[in-house]
Please model this.
Amino acid sequence: MSGSLGDMGNLLKQAQVMQRELDKVREDLRTRVVQGSSGGGAVQVEVTGDRKLQSIKIAPEVIQSGDVSVVEDLVLSALRDGLGKAEKLSEESMGRVTGGMNLPGLF
Model:
């Protein structure tokens, strides 16, 4: 019986180590920034690795076109690009700690 308790203790220690590593990865993701763009760079966004929007830049010629729907589409497209890159960065970073296991609630 004591063998199984020892195994449980080892599992607990491993889980604690993994949790500390995940906390470090989360902190790193908060500081990393990816860029998304659309319209050949006419709209650019910066998004952190934890998927927080940092900035949006819109080229003056996009605004001068006066076509609101084009501006909206370009902004939406750039955001999707940036958020997609942030998601990929997060999955890759977390995957290094979890060994690629999908652990719900960790992201």
About this structure: The domain at 2-98 is CATH 3.30.1310.10 (Ybab; Chain: A;).
